[in-house]
Amino acid sequence: MTQDNRKPLDKPEANGWHWQTNILHTDTQLPAGFSAMPVPVARASTVVFPDLAAMRSLDWKNDSQWRYGLHATPTSMELMRRLAALEGGKHCLLFPSGLSAISNVYFGLIKSGDDVLIPDNAYGPNRDHGDWLAQAWGITVRYYDPMIGDGIGALIQPNTKLIWLEAPGSVTMEVPDIPAIARVARERGVLTAIDNTYSAGLAFRPFDHGVDISVQALTKYQSGGSDILMGGVVTIDDDIHHRLKQARMRLGVGVSADDCSLVLRSLGNLQLRFEAHDRSAMTLATWLGTRHEIAAVLHPAFEDCPGYQHFRRDFTGAGGLFSVVFDERYSQAQIDAFIEGLRLFKIGFSWGGAHSLALPYRVPSMRTATPWPHKGGLVRFYVGLEDVRDLQADIEASLKAHLGG
């Protein structure tokens, strides 16, 4: 039999507990008088209640009650409060990604037998999600011309429960008449949800134009660092918020306090970054419009972009995203070589960070409701925070090397 040479625990401290117990049971609070600009990071799964009465009195509809870290902590609640205020909303919910936020809108509002309308220029994963629900969950999904305006009324059926909007389209850049669509939908008792990622909540305020739900991929401008995955859903109606919140609870999704703190840190310079992206993108888009290799520049602030009049009426800025259509004499292989020849524009999904991106898209295969009028290949540019002169020189060098420009 071996001898146990372990030392006994130290003597109890003044409160009667040993040090191991005391390092676990501390009453940590910010001392009176301490104040700092950063929002404290509150990491928690378990939330401790003062007594059983407090626990039993919980109401999941009450956003001011702490229940469980999955639902909210002081850090995530502060981010939700600021995001709601940014868009002029009342409530906000956070999700692990932009697509997760879109998914929650479906699961919170749509059931078997319902009908959903999606614009033909919608974010690809939203289309995929709708198609999946149609195949597996017994809903119907129909795609509509994004420029339909108040003509949307002719498509609304008795079982139509949700109309998606996207402004502008994330690849093809058409800007719909959002107030007209929202007005008709509201008259017919149909909810509207917009993917408002393009504007970062800064350049377009959906609730001022009659929209019910605003969805954003906070992965993009709000993060600004290409290192956070997060989505947000903002609403003004209590009932809609409760339906979406209940779906979020049932799905068991959440976000980390650390990720929330990084987005909170970036919100202070969001406006400055968005405006810088906007200026550089306008400069590059204008220059590309003079190039013989380019058949069309698809930028919402350009008069020949479909829906320009809506953009000028409803938006205050454009940010860093736009597309170009190459002359049809260039093959897809040549366009691909041009993209791969860029040094500063990287190849990758998502956008909103400091680094510029370029991606090709085969638009005709992405549309089912409206014909695509262009014959040449499309490239979407995201303009980051590099010096715009270097970005222009990068494009010009690759055009010359691979398209003979």
UniProtKB/TrEMBL annotation:
It catalyses: L,L-cystathionine + H2O = L-homocysteine + pyruvate + NH4(+). It holds the Pfam family Cys_Met_Meta_PP. One of its GO terms (biological process) is L-cysteine catabolic process to pyruvate. Coiled coil: none annotated. The keyword Lyase applies. Its cofactor is pyridoxal 5'-phosphate. SUPFAM superfamilies: PLP-dependent transferases. One of its GO terms (molecular function) is cysteine-S-conjugate beta-lyase activity. The keyword Lyase applies. The modification N6-(pyridoxal phosphate)lysine is found at K220. Keywords: Lyase, Pyridoxal phosphate. Belongs to the trans-sulfuration enzymes family. NCBIfam families: cysta_beta_ly_B, PRK07050.1. This is Cystathionine beta-lyase.
